[in-house]
Amino acid sequence: MGAYILRRLMLVLPTLFGIMLINFALTQFVPGGPIESIIARVQGESDATRNLTGGADAGQGQSAEDMGYQGARGISPDLLAQLEVQMGFSRITCAPGFTGTPNLKDPACTREKIPAHERFFKMIGDYLVFDFGESFFKNKSVVDLVIEKLPVSISLGLWSTLLAYLISIPLGIRKAVKDGTSFDTWTSAAIIVAYAIPTLVFSVLLMVLFAGGSYWKIFPLRGLTSDDFETLSLGGKVLDYLWHICLPTIAITLSSFVTLTLLTKNSFLDEINKQYVMTARAKGLTESRVLYGHVFRNAMLIVIAGFPGLFLSVLFSGSLIIETMFSLDGLGLLGYQAAVERDYPVVFGSLYAFGLISLVIGILSDITYTLVDPRIDFERRAG
User: Fold this and answer.
1) Does the domain spanning 142-382 belong to CATH 1.20.1330.10?
2) What distance in Å separates the CA atoms of residue 112 and residue 107, rounded to the nearest whole number?
3) What is the pTM of this model?
4) What tens digit of pLDDT does each residue of 91-135 get?
């Protein structure tokens, strides 16, 4: 097992390199960038101000330029050059023998574009020592932003995964025992319908029904805590937190519990039809003893070992929609905003961190398999 884990660990860096290279190359062909995003913001503010001031001062003949609004005049070329240098797209080169501070205003200094491949390898070198830089727009380091948003996403992922297991394991076992009966038929139909409902639609449905949309106002609509959270007692804080997390957890659990239920059922059916189960029944053991004393441990192998992977899937795949719908300030919302704003340090820094976490959890899943069932030998299979 040690040699297998070592081989998997040796593949982590090449895999991460490939992930970063592909995504970095894609950004070179996507229209727009952080500079264009800043220009669009300034132009949008300029247009809005021009419309407001033009309408209010039309009789006086004044415009935004007359009022000295700098956004209406756009961004100067010098400022654009400074932004490119600050964001790492360009660098300042000065003539040999220059001893002062590099400055674009100095005639001896010029601005030089940094090639894409050079920027990529510098980024990879920084990421290897976990230096993710600072956000272009939030004035915070990427590490601080991720740490700040991480508790919300982890909380949502853990509760959703636990809820999925609490529902799926008993339901899957029951469906396996009642295979082919009316119970199995109608629960399968309900599961298929649940799987077909998009997370976005189900979230809207929950909000309309239980968050004051059109029917009952039982749960809050936004945030993870109430405004007076800090003034509550310990018990009050726990209840307030559970009250807020209820609807988002149910919404994100829908698709994961469906897959896990079918996995549990099929795993139990495979074990029930094996020879050792027939032998246990022939010895006169009760059905519950056969099911939970013999079948359960073997059937739950793949279900238990899949916990890290399921948690990771829930954490990253459904967090964007749920966090946006319920106004939860987590990693999903952070990633979406960074992609829209072309905040590359946040985009690539979070991508690198999530990719590393995914690869490590994949290795942990394999280790979990061997701990649950020592008969599994990945090293022998790999050989």
Assistant:
1) no
2) 14
3) 0.69
4) 777 777 777 777 767 777 777 788 888 888 988 888 888 888 888
